Amino acid sequence: MRNKIGITTTVPVEVLLAAGYQPVDLNNLFIYDPSPGRLVTVAERAGFPLNCCTWIKGIYGVCQQSDIDTVICVTGGDCSNTRMLMEVLRLKGIKAIPFAYPDEPDVDKVYLALEDLAGRLGTTLAAASRVRDELAPCRHLACQLDRLTWQQGLVSGLENHLWLVSASDFNQDWQKYRNQLQELITSCQQRIPYPEDMLRLAYIGVPSVYGRDLYRYVERNGARVVFNEIQRQFAMPEPGDSLAEQYANYTYPYSIHQRLKDIAAELNRRRIDGVIHYVQAFCHRGIGDIIFRDALKLPMLTLEGNDDFYVNPHVKTRIEAFIDMIKRGKKGLRYSGQALKK
User: Within the chain, what is the greatest distance between any pair of CA atoms?
Assistant: First the structure.
């Protein structure tokens, strides 16, 4: 039985598994808790301010309500609040181990970061590389599910989100994850595809506090998400030739311009009609919306979530208006094309 080790975002799980730990993504425990607001309240009663990111408070709440006594805190390449969260966890008797992605996706720098983490956990990169080979089928299946989403229209945006975001810890059991995902893919291949005339949307930014609600509401309004940016990155779609190269190709921890290269290529490849950019309230990454709006020449809806955990009437209205705007634009282009032919 492996000892559980919490993670605050996607980390090199190969190293953790090689060290005999079972990674547990604390974000997933938080957002899919029957009452996530209760976990936020735990943090606020402990002194976390109201204007602190809900995800940070939720992670703290999970740590206080679970049997996890060790946490890998990503202090570089993710949330700027994680460093202080780490200090508070230590105060509460939880062993908090820092891990920082380098400031640029340089393979040599990534190698040194991985080597340091392996040393802290009492393992080696050679052992982690062997685990990488064992996990390869899981990552391959996740990418196959992604292709079934955007190429063949057989997988919903919600299913895509759930299985890709779960690649951070493989639902705490990579062998079970692999088997269940294979069963789902086999089942999906028997489905009737989504209608071709449904709008094709991209979701960029961190996974939202809305959980399953957002994807379902988008589909009820005649559109579907065929690209989940960060979630897809969790599956490591560009594995490279080594563990260090794999995590250098992982775009999320690095410059927003690294993400933009990946996003722009996928928007074109997946024939995207519009982009939903989700930002978390009080998060520094929200400023990146300025850059995305300048670089991505597609209709964009920016949604900011905090601690509501569902798509409220205001957000619903904005989604409806956004989808309607794109539909009207496509209809106008179609009519213009017909007029030009005449």
Answer: 75
- Whether 56 is in a domain gets the answer yes
**Structural domain containing residue 10:** 3-125
Domain membership flag for residue 289: no
pLDDT digits (tens, 9 = 90+) for 86-144: 999 999 999 999 999 999 999 999 999 999 999 999 999 999 999 999 999 999 999 99
Domain count, the chain: 1
If we measure between CA atoms, which residue out of 161, 132, 326 comes closest to residue 245? Answer: 132
Strand order in the sheet with 21-25: 21-25, 3-7, 70-76, 95-100
Q: Are 189 and 48 in contact (CB under 8 A)?
A: no
Q: At what angle do helices 36-45 and 54-65 cross, to 10 degrees?
A: 90
CATH no. for residue 86? 3.40.50.11890
Structural domain contains residue 18: yes
- The answer to whether position 64 is within a domain reads yes
